[in-house]
Target: DUF2884 family protein
Amino acid sequence: MRLNRLLPVVMFAMACGGLHAQDLATVCRATSSYDLTVRPNQLIFDRPAPAPTRVILTDGALITDGQTVALNDEDQDRLALFQRDLRALMPRVKAVAQQGVDVTMQAVRDESGGLDLDADTQAELDRRLAAHAAELHQRIAASESTHDWHGDAANQYANQVINDIAPLLASALGQQAVSAAVSGDLQQAAALRDRATHLATGFQPRLQQRLQVLRPQIQALCPSIQRLSVLQEGIRASNGRPLNLVQVGQ
Model:
């Protein structure tokens, strides 16, 4: 998921639909047109256009679109620091993502509390949410590329959760509605409909509000991102264009 071309490493955080609420383009004014793939001895930045479309940083060397760029000692040192600092930033970004998963899953649990689910359904819902949370935590921990979180992939993860829990909730609400109808309790039936509508239409904005808890952690990333932007300044690709791997607005 591109999300306004955020700083590539930050896209590791996009584990599910709600986790992009704290957008670095807003919080840190940081953007990038590149994706990032992390390898043991390389950082690979790629994009469709414009050139350079592929930038490789490795052991103080810079390769853009297959051409090795001649660097003076100062530029080599700055790119070495850039690589070190970016690798150090990744665990911090992933930690925010992991917390975002927990906030999102807890939000679903809390929302379901207003549906008066029976004990068995609530237990099954909790089990499924815990399983999805564990899977997302594992995916974030194992991810080595922002390509893992592009729109289709990220939406697929979110849809997996929705498609798993929606039928469970619908079945439980349906049973409650049948019971209300059989007993002639039209007021209860209407209340069930209202609760379902409230959950369906209002969950996303309420989740966005909950995710504000992540804002301080994201703000704490901003100085490191700004430092990355400074370290790359003045370094150019083989075609003479500035790298601009990270862009920070004023």
